[in-house]
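Cross-check.
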Amino acid sequence: MKNNIHRFNSISEFHKLSGLPKPEHPLVSLVDYGKVDYQTDNDEISWVQNFYSVGLKRNINGKFKYGQQQYDFDEGLMSFVSPGQLVNISIDRTEKIKPTGFLLCIHPDFLWNTPLAKKIKQYDFFSYAINEALFMSEKEENSIEGIMQIIQQEYHSNIDKFSQNIIIAQIELLLNYCERFYQRQFITRKISSHQILDRLEEILTNYFESNDLQNKGLPNVQYISNELNVSATYLSSLLKVLTGKSTQHHIHEKLIEKAKEKLSTTSLTVSEIAFDLGFEHSQSFSKLFKSKTKVSPVEFRQSFN
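Predicted model, tokenized:
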């Protein structure tokens, strides 16, 4: 059947599609995945939501992939969605084992006038695609689930002047744990991470050896991330953990490597080299070269004479 895109301006609207009763709190809700029953005959559901959600899922049917690398974590899987992101879920109606876990929904209005309103946008994982989700051990799952339940208990209780601050503090604690676990994931996934590094080197080498530089200019971060089948934000986070350098820095390193090769082995002018490397103006090339090497292209060439 046709897959229409639903738009949820409120957590209450999401509860309705999920076959759940109205949320106890209009701006914060902990959804039990075991009770979700999407009110649609479609095998696929897509929506755009106007709130943040942090999901902890179990008993997922099938494996998840990050890029071309399949992961084998069978315990927990966390995903993060920010307002305006498209969510797509395929429903296997023949699967008898129902997913379990929790989904914490947080409307931006709940964070209004608190430091977390601005800080929440600085957590990179809200920009990651679902296939770049956070895989966790049982111990890590228990930590996250414990915090989620404290949040639920707090809005179950009688709301008073302390409630918002306590819930905000727990949300921030939850997000800080997730940031720690993502850093762990980057480090422990060394094999697949190093495959990403090898593939990055291959993509840059092929690009700089082709005519793409003259035709399209320097590759940008989005192009590289698309080639690697990951989001630009996730790639940047991964590279910073593995190498301490951004994606843009890696692109510039390859550029300087090619520039040095041309300056030391050819008689091309600096302007010709700049054009070959995708620069419209040689001044821009010379400025970048000097900022990276501390010498101008001419000075670098003269060092070989």
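Strands lie at 5-8, 28-32, 44-49, 52-58, 65-66, 69-70, 76-81, 86-90, 100-106, 134-136. The mean pLDDT is 85. Passed to J.P. for a second look.
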